[in-house]
Model the fold of this input.
Amino acid sequence: MLNRWQQRLLAILLIGLTLTCSGCWGRRELETLAIVSGIAFDTAPAGKSEVYVTVQVLRIAKAESNTKGSPNEQKGYVNVSASGATVHEALRNCTHTLSRRLFLPHNLIILFGEDLARQGIREYLDFFWREPESRDTVWVAVTSGKAADMLDASEAVETTPSADIANLIVTRQATSFASGVNMHELGMRYASKSAAPLTSYLAVKKDNGKNIPKITGTAVFDQDLKMVGKLTNRETRGLLLAINQFYKGVAVIKNPGGEKYASMELLKTTSSMTPEIKNGKLQMQVKVRCTSNVSEAMGDTDLMSPEVWESLRRREAAVIDNEIMMAIARSKQLNVDLFGFGDKVYKKYPRAWKQIESDWQEVFNSMEVKVDVNTELQRSGKLISPLIR
Amino acid sequence: MNLEGGKISSGQLTFLTAAFIVGISIIIAPGGNAGRDTWLAVTGGFFISLILLWIYLGFCRRYPEHTLVEINDIILGPALGKIVSIIYIWYCFHAGAMEIRIIGEFTATLMSETPVDIFLIVLSITCAFAVYHGIEVLARCSVVLVIMLLVVKAFVTILLFPLTDLSNLLPILDISPPLFFKSAYAAAAYPFGEILLFMMILPFLNRPQEGPRSLVKGMSIGFLLLVILAVRNTAVLGPMGHSITFSSLSAVRMVDVGDVLTRMDILVALDLITIGFLKVTFFYYIVVLGLAQILKLRSYRPLVVPMIFITYIFTVSSFKSGIEIPYYAYNVWPLYSIPFEIILPLLTLLIALIRRFPQAKSSKGGG
Done:
């Protein structure tokens, strides 16, 4: 047997060995990886029925040193295109022109060109839900025009267009005028009983000959994941208010007794949708509760009176109510259930749902939706009333 | 009984039982066929298994100083008893092989380029080492590892709160009753019913009269954890849940708190490997201990290494590919368990009743 010192020595040796000799079988060193930060899909050129993908890959050394230097300098990213019969094959085919293997876990965004989105994106998504390397927190968006162009748009703040776009989706929460949907939420909506899948929608803004991505509204899909239409900014906000995914935003109202505008900063918004069966008729009750601050009053209305206060509150409620009604009207017009009302019905009345499931869209289109908005004003900021000379 | 010199306390038994119940069910929900109602299936399975436990404990109360193998010998006689014991040992062996294979499949899903054998071999060697050092080591490990498991699970579950939508559990029980009972029974067969194997270690308690209470306590801890996990995963994954291979993994991957606390999936792997290690080690231990008692060896240690090799070969050859496992786990294993967990104990009970619970002969060290 080993004595005590020998035992200790052996232990130190073994620990040292595990620290220095351990490794990973499928190890891939940083300098052999092509870290993907964005993926774009478009319709294949010239009538081919292939998957046509453009991948944005970071050039790590460049991305770090590129602090808005001269425009001639190399960019911090490179875009590679390839095609294949399936998504995986197309991605692997990227290695024909790229000297490194693609590494997906740091991917930020998956883009679809609008033409492709209208043809349907169902078959493109399975790979991303299935592949362990791909995370379900990746954002998904539809772009006007070609998605590949969006990955080449001028970067504004971040080092790559894809990081820029991903941040646009995050900061849209400031206005809630656009949807932000990741693979997980897209899957939840797709697998649900009735909710229409949604993604963000990106348009292009021309600025001094540069193309700048601009997030606006929502792309709406039907149950087969074919894009059927878009929501405007206000419709999107109405939708987000109703489905309790509203973050932050400003409601603009007319000043009481004046032509000028006032801004209400929406602080905390909660909402609920409850189906109700009354006299055999299905109806939906949408309740929204929000608190807000007066953040701006352009006119010279004095805010010190309770009547004005009450009037502001009611005007704000009317704005919110209007936006939700716009979203409902749009939903009926597009013939989809944007709100997932059907799922609410299924959860509350599973038996009744079985009878209406097959022609749910008609039921939805003729269903009465009651919107009940309750607003509450809290503070008026640094001013009680506008400065008047 | 001189095979195992160690003694474990009833507290350690509680933790060991909890670890045993949880096992790989961290990632493959028992009764997962029930979809949204998995948590109800788990609950149903738990209560079914309590009835089974009551039968098993009936034996233990009559023969507090004897293991399952010895009880079989006493009740059924040396010849038939040994055959029945070998059947139990086979079941334990098979369950352990399944367990270790599923752990391997899970790690291989995460690291798809590493051969699954690497995980299996490393885990087998670790387990063999633990078995070699006996039940005391295993029991002490289980206390530490189960506490760690509970802390990690609580941490991750709290981080998942923002994504948890309990309305995804509605409507409750919108599945056909046969499917529900099938799922509940599947949960009873695996993992709760395997509590049968604890009849092999109850005599090693330092206070045997506390054994039943510890078993029920440990089962309840495991059961509560499984229900919480089932509720959490359903609430997070919603309608996607039914197509997802490892729902805990997919749910935990969604954790994203301020871009800082993300990529928690390694915690699931950590839990699985630690708790899986306990459960596999327990199975191995029962197999070698049982064989040693059947063969009347003086020590089980010579059996450890050969048993690891045999299990490894069986593990690798029992499935052609990982795709078969979910189907097998949900549809075949529950039926396969019936003879071991229900029919054999009931038959033994019947014979024992007819023979009026014969007592052991004076040869105390017979086992």
